[in-house]
From TrEMBL:
InterPro entries: DIOX_N, IPNS-like_FE2OG_OXY, IPNS-like_sf, Iron_ascorbate_oxido_reductase, Oxoglu/Fe-dep_dioxygenase_dom. GO terms for molecular function: metal ion binding; oxidoreductase activity. This is Clavaminate synthase-like protein. The keyword Metal-binding applies. It comes from Lentithecium fluviatile CBS 122367. Residues 206-322 form the Fe2OG dioxygenase domain. Belongs to the iron/ascorbate-dependent oxidoreductase family. Keywords: Iron, Metal-binding, Oxidoreductase.
Length: 362
């Protein structure tokens, strides 16, 4: 259930411009605010994050094109003042999207996944448990792409003629999001006083994943009765996630002080939501929280009175992880011999991520 005693969101909103353009003391202040948010909630909204808002809008336009936005539903989704409807949308049939299929298995995270293929699981490694979860698959479709220089996971694109301009746009959007990840890592290094050059070089290969997500419209009753889910409660498994979401809402974050109780993390215009993943939580010796989150009913649909249909929803998560040979051992500032011993054995990023990804697809 959603906690009734919490208002919209306890997630702090931080003005990142003060880090990008500010004085040394302003940078330090922003770093401290982000550190505090990650300690307490594991999530932070960043305003003025430096990824051009027009570019974010354009990315949403591409997502709509890819996933067959119908002009009927779009006004409800985006509100009047965003430019996300400005392109001439056309329907891309499933056969076309299947020209770039996500390979089976959990080790090559690229290309198109049709609704129902993926079931996000939280710490489920037991085959029987995973099979049970799959009985109500997440009702969403996705398209994943990554760093064009990642030889281990080559991108899987549609033929250029099917969606001209899509690949170059996504490659450039990837770079903008990567830059933001590196800036956040620099802020975190400042907060922990990690000696120069800080954490950014541990992500030097930028083996990140850009995911385009579409949750099709569905009957409200299906979501309420848990006949279908949008995305089940889970934590992310890398270091940092950036999340851009449209205006529909429905993302919920677990109350750090009350397991099983969720509060809304509503979209905030022009802000990106950033959260800690499991690998980073471990690396920080649990100084930072990797908080469980899920996507359910948008807050304005919690009362059944009027609307029977939950509108479609689009979101764009960007998952960062460390270079695969990085040894994840408690970061400076996160442990000491006396009061805060290291909780975890050192592990490479590779060893850790493999274990988690195997649970996603099979
Ligand atoms: O769609 C969203 O808002 C959240 C997606 C998410 O949590 C994920 O893909 O890991
Ligand atoms: Fe997530």
């Amino acid at each position: 259930m959603v906690s009734p005693n919490l208002n919209d969101s306890d997630i702090p909103v931080v003005d990142f411009d003060k880090f990008l353009q500010g004085s040394e003391s302003e940078k330090e202040d922003v770093a401290k605010q982000i550190d505090k948010a990650f300690r307490e909630v594991g999530f932070v909204y960043l305003r003025n994050h430096g990824v051009d808002n027009g570019l974010v809008d354009e990315c949403f336009e591409w997502v709509c094109i890819l996933f067959q936005l119908s002009l009927h539903t779009s006004s409800d989704v985006y509100g009047a003042d965003r430019s996300r409807q400005s392109k001439k949308f056309f329907a891309l049939p499933t056969e076309t999207k299947m020209l770039a299929p996500h390979p089976p298995g959990g080790s090559h995270h690229r290309g198109y996944s049709a609704p129902g293929l993926e079931k996000v699981s939280q710490h489920q490694y037991d085959a029987g448990e995973i099979a049970k979860l799959r009985e109500t698959p997440d009702y969403k479709e996705s398209f994943e792409s990554g760093n064009p220089h990642d030889a281990a996971q080559p991108n899987i694109w549609l033929p250029e003629s099917k969606l001209p301009g899509f690949k170059p746009f996504m490659e450039s959007y990837f770079t903008h999001c990567s830059n933001l990840v590196h800036l956040i890592l620099t802020a975190l290094s400042l907060a922990l006083r990690v000696p120069a050059p800080g954490l950014s070089p541990t992500h030097s290969k930028s083996l990140f994943q850009l995911r385009l997500l579409h949750y099709p419209a569905m009957e409200r009753a299906q979501l309420v009765n848990e006949a279908r889910s949008r995305i089940n409660a889970h934590s992310d498994f890398g270091t940092l996630t950036l999340l851009f979401q449209d205006r529909v809402g429905g993302l919920e974050v677990e109350d750090p002080n009350e397991k099983g109780s969720f509060r809304p993390a509503p979209p905030i215009d022009d802000a990106v939501l950033v959260n800690i993943g499991d690998l980073m939580a471990r690396w920080s010796n649990d100084r930072w929280r990797s908080t469980v989150h899920r996507v359910g009913l948008p807050p304005n649909l919690t009362s059944p009175a009027t609307k029977k249909i939950v509108p479609e929803r689009y979101s764009i998560p960007f998952f960062a992880t460390a270079d695969m040979d990085t040894v994840i051992d408690a970061l400076p500032g996160c442990w000491d011999e006396v009061g805060r011993p290291k909780k975890y054995e050192p592990v490479t990023a590779w060893g850790y991520v493999q274990m988690r990804m195997a649970a996603l697809y099979e």
